[in-house]
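Chain and conformation:
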Amino acid sequence: MTKKQMELSIKEFSILSLNFTYIPYEAASEEEGEILNQPVEVDFDIQTTEKSDSIRIELDLTCNFEEEDLHPGYSYYVSCEAFFDLENAESKKDVEIDGYLLYTALPMVIDYMRGYLATISGSFPYGQYLMPIIDIDEVIENAIEKQNREEKE
């Protein structure tokens, strides 16, 4: 069976900024099982060219990074960018392009980051960090709400 190749292709992936450390476990402050279970904040920006055939996604992931509220476990801020090409973008409807960007390209960049964080954390005291699964629908809803708030201001 021949598989159809997707019209979306990733061309480049780069780390722009990284701050990754661990906060030591103190028995009195947290349950040991909670140290690697902190929520991940996701922020992203998607930029397209006029034809929408060249796409840039910038992604920021933050976890346990508020200095006044640090918990034992990993603490990080990481920013990356990825560039994609979308074949025949000019012939696609906006809703179809949005689908490619939000439900294929964005999760792909998040997964690249998941692998990157797992690799760099392998030598840290708490061992390999497996970033939790991100609810992409919630991320998109939050981004739409944020954009709506900014437009009202």
